[in-house]
Amino acid sequence: MTSVEKSTSTSPRRDPGWKYCHLQDPNNKHNVVCNFCGKVTKGGVYRAKQHIVGGFRNTTKCNQCPAHVHEEIKEYMLRKSKGNARTNIHEIDAFDEDDVDDTEVQSHGKRASSSQNSNQITTKRAKQRAFVDLHFTPNLEKVVQDKREGKMKQAAISETCKKELRDKAYREIAKWFYDAGISFNAAKLESFSLAVEAIGQYGPGMKPPSYDELRGPLLRKEVDHTKELVQSHEEDWAKHGCSILSNRWRDSVSNRDIMSFFVSSPKGVVFIRSIDVSNNVKNANGLLHVLDQMVEEIGETNVIQVVTDNTSDYVAMAKLLEAKRPHLYWMPCAAHCLDFVLEDIGNLPLVHRTLNEAVFLNGYIQNRTGMVNMMKQCTRGRDLPRFTVPRFAAAFLTLQSLHHQKSNLRKMFTSEEWSKSKWAKKQAGKRAANIVLMPKFWENAIDVLKIIGPLVRVLRLVDGEEKPTMGYIYEAMRRAKNATARSFKENEEKYGHIFDIINNRWACQLNHPLYAAGHFLNPEFFYSNPKIRQDEVVVRGLYECIERLVPSLELQDKIIDELALYKNAEGLFGMEMAKRKRNKKAPAEWWRFFGLSTPNLQKFAVRVLSLVCSASSCERDLKIFKRLHSKRRNRLAQERLNDLVFVKYNRALMRRHNWRDAIDPVLLNDIDDDNEWLVDMEPSGGRFELVYYRRRSRV
User: Fold this and answer.
1) For 40, phi and psi rounded to 5 degrees?
2) pLDDT of 468-496, one tens digit each?
3) Which distant-in-sequence residues (6+ apart) come within 8 Å of 153 by Cβ?
4) Could you give the domains of the chain?
5) What pLDDT score was predicted for residue 296?
6) What's the pTM value of the predicted model, to 2 decimals?
7) Which position among 233, 348, 485, 650 has the lowest Cβ density within 10 Å, counted as fewest Cβ atoms?
8) How far apart are CA 14 and CA 7, in angstroms?
């Protein structure tokens, strides 16, 4: 007889585990000693078997156990768990009769009663089920997705049995929405579906989180989780570069000037923090200190550009920042620059008068319920839009909508119902009717749409978050100007002053080397327009970017040498597949696929073409901040407020990034085509008049 099997070979117990372990104290059924390594495990023979087999979280594996013993005990445990759905060795924690032996014998040596034994077994099984439910319940996101795709439909009899319980749960959830005044749109969030699924997996008797738990430990846990997600972006910042986006706004609740910071990269936009800059609001050196600290935190080698407003204090700060940080750019927000272009055009007498009349007409109808109902009878139930964005583009979209409903509005203001209404007799009503029935207003509206339409399309392009636009803004502005010129049949007297406004703004705010470099490196435009390689402004912009963004002189020379392959479409650039994909893939993605022949140029091109042109992401922060920091909650601690904004905003940004399509290229056809406001003809007053065909707008 071996020493391993001493003291246990004569044991009356049937479990083979007793061959390889023994009790430390005959009076203590729980402390068991391993015969191989001498480790004492607490929990009876079952825990000792886990120690021998290994792979369990409850105890460490015995390193001195022979292989044949390991396999013997493992096979026994699997056989014991047969009939259970969980047969994986890491999931075995099933009920074992030898564990009952340890709990059935009382300290006085008497066997417990059958009722006590039954209760103990039931309690143990409940604990074991709870452990398995904790670690092996299905993934929430996968369950919700499968339900949406119809992959987890229950049997008809189960649906019938659960219908009443489901209806009851729905009513209680609805009551909570009504009591708390929560927007119905909250039910569309995926997190709502995940929360309901998690509650269902817990089962009956779940205690809801308390007020203090929600504002304390649970919030801190979510902040930590969100920080982990943000940290996952840092590798992308180092690999492809990133942009720091900043926006400054006034918090009317606490009367503070708040500056928000975001970091944008190909992996998405993340919110970093908002800080109080009330003391630095008009101080270029103060703004420099704040932004320079952010560059230092993100890493100067990772930051390609800093995008902010283009106010005078930011312009002064930009010169100081670029002098201190010689290998990054400051960029004014392209969306704000285009807003200024549109506002300058809006100050022209014809445009200003026409837009004011359109805004008055729209407001007059929208502010009177009776007028809205009367209009819907003529428009087949369609309403005029209500725009809340504080931008010049809102007035343009109002004019666009009115022009689309031109014939219906004329029908309404010439109807008998209108002539008999109380509004037809009032001064404001007469003014509204004159606007609609005056041919000159509609003629001016067409001219305004010709002028502004293409620029609004460019604004929508740079203001979006779906795709990087650095490689498109240069071409988009050129096509917008060409579309305007064609819509006026190249009559420069009608649009020359408009081009002067655009050129002045472009020269002082939008004429940037990064735009030129993006234009040169976009294969869709470079290979279709041979003039680009001869355009001194574009080529100079490319070379300036290389000198500033690539500190190493050796790498600069390698990039210049590799440009020849790109220009001549040699190497992978010359493959038929690469040619076909020039206008079918996003520029940065095209370079990742076909730029391997020029690795240094490829890295530079991807970093430039992955950049955004505007800081529009920052503006959504204002809405979230105001929603969380209302007058009713103005005593909310600043730290907790920052945590709430940090969690909510980053979750929203990640949802938007998951929905976007960054692979397909940006399409400029709607800018390049003939002015889209004018695509059809209809007779009006004895002559044919161009009519705008309305497309869906995203502005």
Assistant:
1) -95, 120
2) 889 999 899 999 999 999 988 888 888 89
3) none
4) 16-136 (no CATH), 142-208 (no CATH), 226-333+615-659 (3.30.420.10), 513-614 (no CATH)
5) 94
6) 0.68
7) 348
8) 15
Per-residue model confidence as pLDDT tens digits over 382-411: 777 665 444 567 788 888 888 988 998 999
Q: Which two three-digit tokens encode residue 613? A: 């042109």
Give pLDDT tens digits for 604-626. Answer: 999 999 999 888 766 655 555 55
3-state secondary structure of 300: coil
Is 539:526 a contact under the CB 8 Å cutoff?
no
Sorting pLDDT into bands at 50, 70 and 90, what band is 17? confident
Question: Which residues make beta-bridge pairs with 306?
Answer: 244, 330
Query: Which residue has tokens 């390889």?
Result: 20
| Nearest C-alpha neighbor of 656 from the set 620, 611, 622, 626 | 620
The two tokens of residue 399 are 């004019």
SS3 330: strand
| SS3 (DSSP) at 304 | strand
Smallest CA-to-CA distance from 537 within 496, 562, 561, 503 is with: 503
Under a CB-based contact definition with an 8 Å cutoff, are residues 640 and 647 in contact? no
List of long-range contacts for 71-79, beta carbons under 8 Å, 24+ apart: 72/16, 73/16, 73/17, 73/20, 73/49, 76/15, 76/16, 76/17, 76/49, 77/49, 77/53
How many other CB atoms are there within 10 angstroms of residue 475's CB atom? 21
* pLDDT (mean) for 293-316: 91
Q: What is the mean pLDDT of residues 613-640?
A: 60
Residue 21's H or E segment, with its range, is: strand 21-25
Cα-based distances in Å from 656 to 268, 553, 649: 9, 39, 11
- The structure tokens listed for 632 are 């009713």
**CB of 270 closer than 8 Å to CB of 263:** yes
DSSP annotation of 328? S
Dihedral of CA 652/658/663/667: which sign? negative
Query: H or E stretch including 505?
Result: helix 492-505
- Which residue in 607, 599, 663, 584 sits closest to 576, CA to CA? 584
DSSP 282: T
**Confidence band (pLDDT; 50, 70, 90) for 658?**
low
HEC readout, 500-567: HHHHHHHHHHHCCHHHHHHHHHCHHHHCCCHHHHHCHHHHHHHHHHHHHHCCCHHHHHHHHHHHHHHH
Find, among 56, 38, 36, 122, the residue nearest to 46 by Cα: 56
Contacts of 490 (CB under 8 A, 6+ apart): none
